[in-house]
Design goal:
A two-stranded antiparallel ribbon has the order 1-2. Helix content is about 65%, strand content about 5%. The chain has one domain. It is elongated, with a radius of gyration of 19 Å. It is built from nine helices and four strands, in the order E-E-H-H-H-H-H-H-H-H-E-E-H. The chain is mainly alpha-helical and about 270 residues long.
Length: about 270
């Protein structure tokens, strides 16, 4: 856990925010490169990615606040805007960014599916950087574990506070009990997904519209469903599944639909 990348008197650069910025920059550069490869002007797409970045952060924060209102924010409304301290729910950002994307395509009269294929490639790349930032802040941690890869977050970390509330450790404990680094598991998984989608885009972007979008939905839905099983932080649920697992199931079905339609209407 290393929440402050730079701490010099009044200057504090949060590691979480720095990795988010790196993720956005990496996604931006890949989108520009893909646009040039497709023979189109990258400027409109890079402008769109800026709007999606902002809406993604806002939507992620709104969803996180809703899910954790009673535990974290009911008595501390001043923390609502402290995204530098972590606290983003990916699916909330995904939904709001998707809405902005659709509106932009309608206004600019751009075909939605080919544009979705382009942006689906880079979403997991930015997401991978974000999850590394989560690890350095200590949020989104995994279940208690004694396996070799387990990590112990220090006193004052989210895991430490949660274990203290649960009576698992005392207030004098210097560190939390070991937990799975679920953040790093997800970071690796979504980076592999990015590589797979990049390969698909380079081969099929103009032959099977919708294939990349559907593959992203199916791939990330599977990743997130499994990661939710490994998570140890407080999770709101719908029946036997967490909120994120429920959304993942719906996303998986939608992704399968996109893939089937792509193969029916596309040209191999």
């Amino acid at each position: 856990m290393h929440p402050d990348l730079i701490s010099l008197g009044f200057l504090h650069l949060k590691t979480y925010g720095a990795f988010m910025a790196l993720g956005f920059l990496a996604a931006w550069q890949v989108v520009a490169w893909l646009c040039r490869r497709m023979g189109r002007d990258p400027e409109p797409c890079t402008n769109l990615i800026m709007w999606m970045m902002v809406s993604g952060v806002v939507g992620s924060r709104i969803a996180y606040v809703i899910e954790h209102w009673s535990q974290e924010f009911a008595g501390h409304p001043e923390l609502l805007v402290r995204i530098d301290q972590g606290g983003l729910m990916f699916y909330g950002g995904f939904i709001l960014a998707l809405a902005v994307f659709v509106v932009w395509c309608r206004v600019k009269r751009e075909p939605i599916v080919p544009m979705a294929d382009l942006f689906a490639v880079v979403i997991p790349l930015g997401h991978a950087f974000g999850r590394v930032g989560c690890f350095f802040y200590g949020c989104c941690y995994g279940r208690l574990s004694q396996c070799a890869c387990a990590v112990s977050f220090p006193r004052g970390s989210p895991a430490w506070h949660e274990q203290l509330r649960a009576g698992l450790i005392s207030s004098e404990a210097a560190a939390a009990l070991p937990v799975l680094p679920a953040q790093l598991f997800e970071a690796v998984a979504v980076f592999v997904l990015f590589a797979a989608l990049l390969f698909l885009h380079r081969r099929f972007w103009n032959r099977l519209p919708g294939l990349i979008t559907g593959s992203y939905m199916v791939g990330y839905a599977c990743i997130r469903f499994v990661i939710e099983i490994l998570r140890g932080d407080p999770r709101a649920s719908i029946g036997i599944f967490s909120i994120s697992q429920t959304i993942s199931l719906l996303l998986f079905l939608l992704g399968c639909t996109f893939i089937l339609v792509a193969f029916r209407r596309g040209k191999l």
